[in-house]
Task: structure prediction
Amino acid sequence: MKQEEILDNLNIDALNAIQLESVAAWRKAKRIVLLAPTGSGKTLAYLLPLVAELTDNPQWRALVLVPSRELAQQTADVVKQMRCGIRAVACYGGRAAMDEHRLLREVNPQLIVATPGRAGDHLRKGNIEGAAVSVLVIDEFDKCLELGFREEMANIVSMLPNVNRRFLLSATDREEIPAFVGAGSTGRNQWREGDAHEDFVRLDFTDSADDERLHMHAILSPQKDKLQTLLELVCQLGNSQSIVFVNYRESVVRVADFLRKSGVEVSAFHGGMEQRDRERALYRFANGSANVLVSTDLASRGLDIDGVQHIIHYHLPLDDEAFTHRNGRTARWDREGDVWVIVGPEEKVTFKAAELEHTGQLQPPVPRWVTLYIGKGKKDKISKTDVVGFLSKIGGLQRDELGRVDVGDHFAYAAVARTKADAVMRSVRGQKIKGLRTIIERAY
Result:
């Protein structure tokens, strides 16, 4: 398949400089390190040459390692949207490994996107044949190669004896890349942008970020507890989408509960949640049923949620890298975004902080949509068309009253107009979808 057709399938007019350089580097080097700002299209920068390589060499297999479940799912979805004929599977914790084993057998994927823990598990059990892997990609390598992942990563690489291509990507660098990765001489100061040595190329675009697209604001909180200041800020920002970052899981629960009790539609997201709850939280935020996502730094990497306008640092980030990755959830590609840092009485930032202007009575923003959960999916022969038809015919919804609809293997989500949600629930209660009785409820 031609690259132009893939871009057309993705609704992309042209590649940016980072992607063009990456495609060119793939042609001349077998070991590539790419450093580029968040939101600059790094996923496509490696997927385009990778799927071309797999098309030309159908016997090859590629393993893409990512640090989170959400990034694994998202990457596999991009491959699906490319419609390039490459068989891809995402593997990650939070679901039964046996189900993935069956899926790997059925699909016989050319490309596997996996978190390190799950990839190591499948390799040790023989569910993934390590000797068949020819290409290794490590996305967000600075995170994947942290001490907590390092032993597992070393074990994974040791089970891939025939890898002849390596591609490492991140928005932030590391002082050194462990020798076991096989990326060659990779000390931070040993390679300059564009330098090549034998089959190694390092591309560094981290100084090319357009700071003008990111508007920085510091807001003073008169109390150490910043909840009231956060609420005032969220109300002033209105219906635009905001991600609130905190440093601890317990803080996610506390902040989300406070906003929810104050009338804000909010989703909570952290690593201690069940996979289904994490997916539901992200879905409600992505489809506009919740204006605010409260999260730990788990949401700071890889997530590409369209339309995020505001990043709010409720807790100051622990380091510069965390600050960079958090802010990267907005101003993606060529868009603009706002970053808000809430500064407590004992905290200091490097740019000027000001108090919020009080606008009188607080009015929590009201999202346009409400998410419905439907307890049947693809495995029950339910399609997106079936859901749309059911909610239109039985639920009485017009086209502009039905938003995003997604169908998973065992369930479906649909965004419906908030003004119609109660009427829809009354109309569909007890009704069958495609002859099947199922649970239909509002997703919170």
